[in-house]
Design goal:
The chain is mainly α. Helices cover 63% and strands 7% of the residues. It has helices at residues 2-10, 16-28, 33-40, 44-56, 75-107; strands at 31-32, 60-62, 69-72. The chain is elongated.
């Protein structure tokens, strides 16, 4: 079950480690970084890197208490955040595409290219 969930989560723009952490937090509830080291069995530095990635993506939240506890946001909200982020990137690509097309069209002659190939039959 976990493997199938992790694979599906990866289609939403998160890496395998982030998907494993998110799924673990969904199952375990709030957990400290140290607790995640024990549960998942990865180095503490990797835990913080992964947690920061999930925080940036809006898939988890952190407490203000010490030690800091992390919890997964509800699955639908997490996936909505991932979809919105991907949609934002697609809009950025569309704008960049338009700008690049206009830039190239201003710099490349519109007539037949001098470097046309002759095709022999």
């Amino acid at each position: 079950m976990e493997k199938a969930v992790v694979e599906r989560l990866r289609t939403f723009g998160i890496n395998e480690m982030e998907a494993r952490f998110y799924f673990t937090l969904l199952n375990c509830g709030a957990e400290t970084a140290g607790g995640l080291v024990e549960v998942i069995g990865v180095a503490r530095a990797d835990v913080y890197k992964t947690l920061n990635g999930l925080l940036e993506k809006g898939m988890i939240e952190e407490s203000t208490e010490r030690p800091t506890r992390y919890c997964a946001v509800p699955i639908e909200a997490a996936l909505d955040a991932a979809v919105m982020k991907q949609a934002y990137h697609l809009r950025q690509m569309e704008r960049s595409k338009q700008e690049l097309v206009e830039l190239v069209n201003r710099q490349v002659p519109t007539g037949p290219s001098e470097a046309t190939l002759t095709v022999s039959k």
